[in-house]
Design brief:
By secondary structure, the chain is an alpha/beta fold. The chain has ten helices and 14 strands.
């Protein structure tokens, strides 16, 4: 289907039309619309260093200017610094319409995330506010996100079967307790399912990221796409594994394998096929980042 045909969301089995504001949050968001990625940009605020899960493919380096991947930033900002950054970015690059928080850790596990959302949304209410999360805390934080204008939520979900999930996560930390193995995978999945459903019911646009891990979840990805499509997620982003940490010896899928998997998932949910695997401090259009010059000038005296 063309982008114009994706104009409804399924809520509790009913197809509910998007309102004009939701359509704007699709048409001006470079991740939600392939057309938008050529015209509009995003600004990621790296205010969230702490994480509450350990994925077996994830390494977070906070001071690494030469890598372009999730979990990487040149500097962790305070909420006040992030507001200063947004002021400069929207003045110099008016095509930037999206303010996102995607790490370098788990945004919902960092109180700085919510302060940054609050002060940026108060000053720039028309900017599209976006969050990327592992979903563990989404059920209890979704109303606070809604209060601060977050209309676009990305959930990284790599399994809908705990037997597969336990191969992907080393541990999950929730309410002061660390869980391992099947117990951790079951807890995370239950929270992700509940959080996605709650976000959809609040008319948030949900994107699901799934890391394609050969030998681990490759035979399970279509099941993930079908499940999140049934829950009302808007789009599905299949991300090839970057081999590192415990999965450093796994060969990532080829571009052809990725396309074939996306084609298999497409009957169940709209596919995002233009992902740039953004850094936690990315600024600009997808594939045309400008954060290096912004940060060099903004913090040259620090």
């Amino acid at each position: 289907m063309s982008e114009e045909e994706y104009r409804t969301v399924k809520i509790r089995g009913r197809d509910v039309p998007f309102d004009p504001e939701q359509m704007r949050k699709i048409s001006e968001h470079p991740c939600y619309s392939e057309k938008a990625c050529h015209a509009f940009g995003r600004c990621h605020l790296p205010v969230a260093p702490k994480c509450n899960i350990q994925c077996n493919y994830c390494v977070r380096d906070f001071d690494c200017v030469n890598e372009s991947r999730p979990g990487v930033t040149s500097k962790v900002l305070s909420p006040e610094e992030s507001l200063e950054l947004v002021r400069r970015v929207v003045a110099e690059f008016p095509y930037v319409k999206v303010i996102g928080i995607a790490g370098p850790g788990e945004p919902l596990a960092n109180p700085e995330t919510f302060e940054a959302l609050r002060i940026v949304h108060e000053e720039f209410p028309r900017l599209i506010m976006c969050i990327s999360t592992n979903g563990l805390l989404l059920p209890e934080k979704v109303d606070e996100l809604d209060r601060y204008g977050v209309g676009n939520v990305t959930v990284t979900l790599n399994a809908v079967d705990p037997a597969i999930g336990e191969k992907i996560y080393s541990w999950v930390e929730y309410n002061g307790k660390r869980y391992h193995g099947r117990e951790a995978a079951e807890l995370l999945l239950a929270q992700q399912m509940k959080g996605i459903e709650m976000a959809v019911e609040r008319r948030m646009l949900v994107k699901v990221n799934t890391v394609y891990i050969p030998g681990i979840n490759e035979d399970h990805i279509v099941d993930i796409a079908k499940k999140v499509g049934d829950l009302g997620a808007y789009t599905f982003n299949l991300i090839p594994l970057i081999p590192q940490y415990k999965f450093e010896d796994i060969t990532p899928p080829t571009p052809a394998q990725k396309r074939e998997m996306q084609d298999r998932c497409a009957p169940y949910i709209k596919q995002m096929r233009h992902c740039a695997r953004c850094r936690a401090d990315a600024i600009g259009r997808l594939g045309h980042d400008v954060q290096s010059c912004i940060y060099k000038d903004q913090y040259k005296d620090q």
